[in-house]
Amino acid sequence: MKVKANAVYVLGSMIILAGVSGCSSGNAIKPFDGKDLQGWQFKAPAEKSKWAVGIAAVSSEDPAMLVAKCGAGEMINLPRKHADSVDIYSKEKFGNCRIELEVMVPKGSNSGIYVMGEYEVQVLDSFGKTQLDNGDMGAIFGANPPPVNACKKPGQWQKYVIDFLAPKFDAKGKKVANAKFIKVELNGQILHKNVEMKGPTPGGVSGKEAPAGPIMFQGNHGPVAYRNICIKPLCGH
Description:
By secondary structure, the protein is mostly beta strands.
């Protein structure tokens, strides 16, 4: 989408007036306010959710577990075993966007960032691994392994920057252009550029492609924490 001065664009339920200078920090959407999970919903069964708000730390009793200390600012998944919690996704929907966030995983844990709820960037404790595959930290799951290991030690905060183009559809609803990861950056290292997605990653919100969708965090695979989630319209496309 090419941005024109004074043109109006719709991002989810947000209406954005684009000026001549393009994107600005004022266009940022923060689906998590750091205080509660009111802007989020769970994949069924919701009653199994172990998501909480607090300050994340690795358990002193088990390096594979997280604990939530009193406070705010971080959304934390606290399962004790595989399938002991559920995936969580935003009520807000997004199309072409830049996603910036920080994630923490304890030893051996596994999660995923599903852009538009359907296209997964992998989150995994891959620290120290030399042979990387499609399931390691920084991979576009099932599509491209990371070319280098940019994963930090378990329990440390790690930053993703993801530039993403939504799939395009014609007036009849037929897809005319695939979704594309323009860039995936982890901890300051660019891992992927211009990776086209022919279809959704298994395990997403609906398994169907659409012009807009939520951001989803995988919660049924292990403990994980997220913070500083910032999503901006991706201008110039």
